[in-house]
Specification:
Shape: globular
CATH topology of the largest domain: TIM Barrel
Number of helices: 17
Oligomer: single chain
CATH architecture of the largest domain: Alpha-Beta Barrel
Distance between the termini: 45 Å
Number of strands: 8
Length: about 425
């Protein structure tokens, strides 16, 4: 391959520009937050909000897990209907051939997956007690990729779990083998939040230059550096000549101290001095949907947005001290790096201060009609209204809190898919069920 042809394969649309894309993992990694979780309806609304935000891909769940099957299939039907029209829906599987086969069997319409396996010596020794070595890890990964290609998956990424504690030599070997067997991206997983931005930049750039494979950044926030490492890693990928893909979660949800926060990371790339005057961001990003997306995730998880959260916290644009207040009133740019309107904030909100009718698992038809009339939803018949009421009741059983407008509208617009998403069948679980 000529150098010119090689350059074109590593760029977007042959334009020679390397870009940064966002792959949100709220519905896979974020839901693994201890003591918390999301109902399948809530995961669906998050996929639709990510689509509105122009996020390139949502890692929307586990296609080898039985209770995810209906939800995953229904969301892929939303893609077919055009209700999710931009964001790709991707599954996560272990780098084991039988798991790839099971994913295809359980979710036949799934097109995109990331396969994952541990690569550090700590994990190899600590998890497998000497049964595997690094060569065996590479072999398992390659076998899983070959199987995925055979089964028709259209786009494959490979995850190096605990990449931050894996040697440069092993990461390069792993990345080269992944690329040779059909992987499009290598996910660099800082599984323990161990890395710093300086180290990350050098490592990601080295792997990019040595292998030419696009790089995914996946950083945890145990040391408070997930956003910084994500941004530095993306810079290393671009400077190394490949595209960068950043994994995020909404409001930074995730195991232990969480993951890189979606809105903070977008803002860091759009507004920080690191990328000043550089056109590197995926053009599809719609930051105007950030405010409502963050608010919905906070409600769904039951975790309030931190008061000092970048962009979406209550104090993100608040000024109290005399010097700051005076300066902000004279010119926003004195003490505000960006405008709240850019995040979809500033619109008036209606807050009920008197009687408020909500719908729950024991609601009746009159209260139900009152709520939907406010949403300007009309039903064609009493039968249809009662069918939707039953679905809303079931949805409330799964969420255990009043349904918000987006959830109520989704059920009214897509009752058949809502029914599928709400259907769990533990009666099918037996000795051969999947975890």
């Amino acid at each position: 391959m000529s150098e010119q042809a090689k350059d074109l394969t590593l760029s977007d649309n042959g334009a020679g520009r390397k870009r940064i894309y966002f792959m949100d993992v709220t519905n896979r990694d974020g839901v693994q937050t201890s003591r918390l979780g999301l109902a399948k309806l809530e995961k669906t609304i998050i996929n639709m909000l990510l689509d509105e935000m122009g996020i390139w891909q949502s890692e929307f769940g586990f296609p080898t897990t039985r209770h995810e099957k209906n939800y995953l299939s229904a969301n892929l039907e939303l893609v077919e209907l055009g209700a999710i029209h931009h964001t790709r829906l991707s599954g996560w599987v272990r780098a084991i051939s039988k798991d790839v086969e099971l994913a295809r069997e359980m979710v036949p319409k799934l097109k995109y997956i990331n396969i994952s396996i541990s690569t550090s010596q700590q994990m190899i020794n600590g998890k497998w007690s000497g049964r595997y070595d690094f060569d065996h890890v590479v072999s398992l990964m390659c076998e899983a990729l070959v199987k995925a290609k055979e089964l028709g998956f259209e786009s494959l990424g490979v995850n190096s779990e605990d990449a931050s504690r894996t040697s440069d030599e092993h990461l390069i070997e792993f990345a080269r083998a992944a690329k040779e067997h059909g992987a499009e991206r290598l996910r660099y997983c800082d599984t323990l939040g161990y890395n710093d931005p300086f180290t990350v930049y050098d490592r990601i750039r080295l792997i990019a230059e040595e292998t030419g494979i696009d790089m995914e950044m996946h950083f945890h926030n145990d040391l408070g550096m997930a956003v910084g490492c994500s941004v530095a890693g993306a810079k290393g990928a671009l400077d190394g000549g490949v595209n960068a893909y950043i994994n995020t979660t909404i409001n930074g949800m995730g195991e232990r101290a969480g993951n890189a926060d979606l809105v903070s990371t977008i803002l860091a790339i759009k507004k920080s001095s690191l990328y000043e005057d550089e056109d590197v961001m995926d053009d599809s990003i719609n930051l105007m949907a950030a405010w409502k997306t963050a608010k919905y995730a906070a409600y769904a998880f039951g975790v309030p947005i931190a008061v000092n959260q970048p962009g979406v916290g209550n104090n993100a644009f608040a000024h109290e001290s005399g010097i700051h207040a005076d300066g902000a009133l004279k010119s926003r740019r004195n003490y505000e790096l960006y405008d709240y309107e850019e995040l979809g904030r500033g619109e008036p909100e209606i807050i009920e201060t008197g009687r408020n009718i909500t719908i729950g698992e024991y609601s009746g038809i009159k209260g139900f009609r009152n709520v939907y009339e406010k949403l300007e939803v009309e039903f064609q018949s009493e039968v249809e209204a009662r069918d939707i009421l039953d679905l809303v009741r079931y949805a409330n059983v799964t969420t255990q809190k009043p349904l918000v407008e987006d959830e109520l509208l989704f059920i009214a617009r897509y009752p058949d898919l809502a029914r599928k998403i709400l259907t769990l069948d533990p009666a099918q679980v037996g000795s051969k069920s999947m975890t």
